[in-house]
Amino acid sequence: MSFFDKLKFNRLKEGLTKTKDDLFNKVNRLVNASSKIDDDFLEQLEAIFISADMGYETTDLLITNIKERAGRDKFFDQSELNTIITEEMKKILADNLSEFKSFDLNVTQKPFVIMIVGVNGVGKTTSIGKLAYNFRKAGKKVLIGSADTFRAAANDQLEVWAQRAEVEIIQRPDAKDPASVAYETVNIAIAKGYDVVLIDTAGRLHNKSHLMEELKKIKRVMQKVVPDAPHEIFIAIDATTGQNGLNQAKEFSNTMGGLTGIILTKLDGTAKGGIVMKIANDMKVPVRFIGVGEKIEDLQIFDKDSFIKALFEN
Amino acid sequence: MFEDLSVKLEGVLKKIRGQGKITEKNIDESLREIRRVLFDADVNYKVVKDFLEEVKQKSLGENVLLSITPGQLIVKIINDELIKLLGSENVDINFSNEIPSVILVVGLQGSGKTTFSAKLAKLLKKRGKTPLLAACDIYRPAAIEQLKILGKQADIPVFSIDGERDAIKIAQTAIRHAKNNARDTLIIDTAGRLAIDEEMMNEVRRIKDAVKPAEILFVVDSMTGQDAVNTAKSFHDQLDFNGVVLTKLDGDSRGGAALSIRSVVDKPIKFASVGEKLDQLEAFFPDRMASRILGKGDIVSFVEKAQQEFDQDESAKLQEKLRKNKFDFEDFLAQLKQIKKMGSLSSIVSMLPGAGNALKGKQIDDKVIVKIEAVILSMTSDERSNPRILNGSRRRRIANGSGNSIQEVNRVIRQFEDMQKMMKNFNKSKLFNTMRKMNIPPTLMKNLK
In sequence order, what DSSP letters do the residues of B143-174 get, joined into one string? Predict the structure, then answer.
């Protein structure tokens, strides 16, 4: 591991501390206090998983698997039991994530258009700022399009992030139609030879059909300029969101004709990294980036191996 | 809001209701289903456990076993326990005798504090207060700007100190500013913070010490998962807040946070935020909410809302016309305007019994009203008061004028005729009289059918 990678890994580990403490220390304590796998033990294990936002289904699957293995392998000491539980959790993550390679910042199409969608308050604008920083670091010429024409001062907020990331931004404070801003941004990107275009959109609840229609329009008008745009549609999901996160992903996916990735934000603030497990198990959309802090470098490419390592390694 | 939870619970409850004989076994089965429904709704693990334990104890009690309709009784037990979870009645904000009375708004990032602060200011102004908003979020880029814009929209002054990096100083100066400018209530918007961020929690504690708020409100996103309870608890441990505000309840959240927080921190939910517009903030009534969750609707809020927004004279005039069977397009138009004042159609409909199940997966499009309005507005006044003259060429003209197809115009006219017919029948019905007493225009009922 290079020095830089190590630094990043340490940030990730730090960001996951709360999840790790909560989830694994609890499992540890439970295992150490139990002498056999009985209903009581399984119920307590269930409580830990549900409390980590893994959701009923994923929890049920985990418990069933653990029960089966424990029954098959008969008894063992506590460290063996601990291993079984950890392995089963790892398996759910690894099985479901195996087909996805980590996101590569070295995009080839030009301009490479990324659109960010999501409900209100999940951290879309902040993520755009951090993404822009990541791409610029990778040597790309980045243009941000501010297509949140609804929220008060959204433009100003994005501008601050563009400055921090040292990239250009297109914004039309008086524009009422977000699609027109997106259209203009893509046009300028072509004219001026930008590599990456990041389109920020207004937060919207996924059950508001008229607002969801607006997203389709943004996509449509960009396609007039770049037929295969957007090349990526990321949904930002707040890691503290519960089971509703799944609804959000489904509805946005339906509207957009598929999502290509998830940005999981605010992972540092929650003990509920279990949502990653649920997302892995329920959705066939890869987690692309995770937010583990408020600083501009705190958005990391989701690498399942580092993630699993940061989570499971002592 | 809560539609999903309500649909799922209705399903389980229907089964229970039908049961003629209650045994421990079939109760266990039903409770297992409810358990799953509640977990899927993000209700806290421990809260679910205690809730089900309580329901089970009561369900196996003598009353139920001896009852002729044990299923009904269990449904009632569940209802009562739900209300207990949500708190029993609406609790209003505390105001101090000092001027200004200070309200401190706190919460996690992205929970909706800034928007809520502006909405609350607007609501208090409506109640005759003279609020001042103070922008103390010095961290999030453009947060202060956002509050200023919202303040302008709500016509509420916003206090801020450009470039000031000390939130405590802003808050203190805001108090003086409120005093000097005769503002009786000060609402302080703070930065979002994680409960585990000691430095930031320290800051908000210092704000609290400096401004001595009469009310501290904890704002929480209603879509929050199992962590909602922990976050609320640690904010509560450190700030001892007075009440909870649930935001984004207009989403399809199943309300786990709503059902969990109160029972853990024992502080009432005071407000629910139900839309992006500044007047979409409601006082929270636990019993009505429980009723909605159980699919029984919330007729009380519905009637209140209708009475609040509907023009008395208009309604009286309309009823007179209805009595004489003289309902025309002008009246239709007036009715639509009144309905629009009540809020979005979906929010109105969600208050009606069984709405969750009936509307499962369906979207109510508010544009329908706009379309009907456009069609009517493209009619001449002759046509409006005498719809019978609407022949083919007139309809074509209306279609062109309103930007609709002729089929759409025909549909609106057909709807109108249906309504006329219905009104005729209404005239003779008891329901009409009841509604007249409640001051609810019949058009609304028709629209909600």
Answer: HHHHHHHHHHHHT--EE--TT---HHHHHHHH
